């Protein structure tokens, strides 16, 4: 289970006039977390976000399964397969989220013939008719078949996660992630400055479980996820020192 006290820092560039995030500078940990959201089964996402609060109808569908009497289910079918679907163990952890709400996918082999694998313990092996109860460890591929050493590849072999940690990534308000570069950031700032007289402010935020859940929710119903989570107009905004402001047209 992920450490619920885990924290990740994210540096944001904000237009202080409109209170809108222009883009953020993120390292491997934050990008790995955001990418890991794509591995969630839909049932786990709904469970994490609380069905009654969800936009649209999918929350009602989830609650329908919750409220359905199990006598209406076919034999050997458990509601947990819909309400709490399992996540493959090739994702090491889902940072910042309460992984108690996410069941880990486990594998069981036939200890008699060693020819069949299942994800449901005590399944009868179709080959030798023995009960499959021996848990097998899932081995995550290293991602490299060469003989290169960690030093030769920047120490990234078996680093875990999804992206390399030797560079910084840029993430826009609508969660587009690209490798950070001076050209791309200047281009993006120019795009905003042509529309408004922007007043830039740098802000470093801490992302924990609460913010992780908010990002998951915002990613599903908003094109301005970073602004919604970190620049909410309902929050009292502490005015930074004048030195942190940059007037783009000065």
From TrEMBL:
InterPro entries named among the record's database cross-references: DUF674
Per its UniProt record, what Pfam families does this chain match?
A: DUF674
Q: What protein does this entry describe? A: DUF674 domain-containing protein
Organism encoding this protein: Dendrobium catenatum
